């Protein structure tokens, strides 16, 4: 048996990233969606699988160019993923020749626009700023949660807890991230962002994503950080956020929070039948 025999009838996928925030993308528009929580965990393992920050599964849509479901590497689902949405937008724009496309996610229908052939923008919608929508466990001040450090909270299709600190590089992210991810104020757990305001148009950010990991970038987290920083009176509505993987431009407009940045297709591959058999 040669290598090609071993992947015949396997499951094709793409590996992409936005600023080092990396994704496996499976196109199920012409086939039944094969992904389960167990499969997402197996594919997401960085030693025994492919590895990803999120898995995105595409399916046909009657309301947008494509329907998208997101999975975390621990097998849980995610309602939104900004950088993955931009990556998927890049694929669809290249496929269709359009200047803009729409994705239907749990967050709603998100438009993605080609800016200059390199940069893409996605409208992540208006932030969720009612405690029930974030969601939180009870009614509290979203600009100063009753948690040490008085972080702010915002929903972007998933919950975010944003701390303003003097030096993000001094934060013990592996220690503090999981503590706040599982804080009892967040019944569905939360993404945790630490931001350092450089000036009224610039922020430095590091992030711990719900699902138990440090990532180089988080698009929905950058959107939430910009919203929280502005609501605290620290920045303008349009800011550049410098993440470990590079910069995102966030612009909180009347029609939603727009996020602009680069994307990269890394490689295509096929999950072998033997691998898939281990998670059936």
List keywords for this structure.
single chain; alpha+beta; Diaminopimelate Epimerase, Chain A, domain 1; 2 domains; 17-stranded mixed β-sheet
Architecture blueprint of SSEs:
Layout: H1 3-7, E1 11-18, E2 21-27, H2 37-44, E3 54-59, E4 66-72, E5 77-78, H3 82-96, E6 100-105, E7 108-114, E8 119-123, E9 152-155, E10 159-164, H4 173-181, E11 191-199, E12 202-209, E13 213-215, H5 219-231, E14 238-243, E15 246-253, E16 256-262, E17 264-271, H6 273-277
Parallel strand pairs: 2-3, 4-6, 10-11, 12-14
Antiparallel strand pairs: 1-2, 1-17, 3-4, 4-5, 6-7, 7-8, 8-16, 9-10, 11-12, 12-13, 14-15, 15-16
Describe the structure.
This protein has 280 residues and is α+β, with helices and mostly antiparallel strands. It folds into two domains: 3-124 and 263-277, Diaminopimelate Epimerase, Chain A, domain 1; 152-254, Diaminopimelate Epimerase, Chain A, domain 1, CATH 3.10.310. 20% of the residues lie in helices and 38% in strands. It has helices at 3-7, 37-44, 82-96, 173-181, 219-231, 273-277; strands at residues 11-18, 21-27, 54-59, 66-72, 77-78, 100-105, 108-114, 119-123, 152-155, 159-164, 191-199, 202-209, 213-215, 238-243, 246-253, 256-262, 264-271. The chain has a 17-stranded mixed β-sheet that branches. The chain is globular. The protein starts with a helix and ends with a helix. Residues 1-6 have low confidence and may be disordered.
Largest sheet: 17 strands, mixed
Fraction of helical residues: 10-25%
- Overall 3D form: globular
So, the CATH homologous superfamily of the largest domain?
Answer: Diaminopimelate Epimerase, Chain A, domain 1
Structural class: alpha+beta
């Amino acid at each position: 048996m040669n290598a090609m025999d071993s992947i015949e009838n396997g499951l094709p996928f793409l590996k992409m990233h936005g600023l080092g925030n990396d994704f496996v993308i499976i196109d199920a528009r012409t086939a039944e969606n094969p992904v389960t929580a167990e499969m997402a965990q197996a594919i997401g393992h960085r030693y025994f699988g492919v590895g990803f920050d999120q898995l995105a599964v595409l399916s046909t849509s009657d309301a947008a160019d494509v329907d998208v479901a997101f999975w975390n590497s621990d097998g849980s689902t995610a309602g939104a993923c900004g950088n993955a949405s931009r990556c998927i937008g890049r694929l669809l724009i290249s496929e269709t020749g359009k200047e803009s496309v729409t994705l239907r996610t749990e967050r709603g229908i998100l438009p993605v626009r080609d800016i200059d052939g390199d940069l893409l923008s996605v409208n992540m919608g208006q932030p969720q700023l009612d405690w029930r929508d974030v969601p939180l466990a009870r009614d509290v001040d979203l600009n100063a949660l009753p948690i040490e450090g008085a972080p702010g909270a915002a929903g972007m299709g998933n919950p975010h807890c944003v701390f303003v600190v003097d030096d993000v590089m001094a934060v013990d992210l592996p220690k503090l991230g999981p503590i706040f991810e599982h804080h009892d104020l967040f019944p569905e757990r939360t993404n945790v962002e630490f931001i350092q305001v450089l000036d009224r148009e610039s922020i430095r950010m590091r992030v711990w994503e719900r699902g138990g990991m440090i990532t180089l970038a988080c698009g929905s987290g950058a959107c939430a950080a910009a919203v929280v920083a502005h609501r605290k009176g620290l920045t303008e509505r349009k800011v550049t956020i410098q993440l470990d993987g590079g910069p995102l431009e966030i612009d909180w407009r009347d029609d939603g929070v727009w996020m602009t940045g680069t994307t990269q297709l890394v490689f295509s591959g096929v999950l072998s039948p033997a691998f898939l058999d281990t998670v059936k």
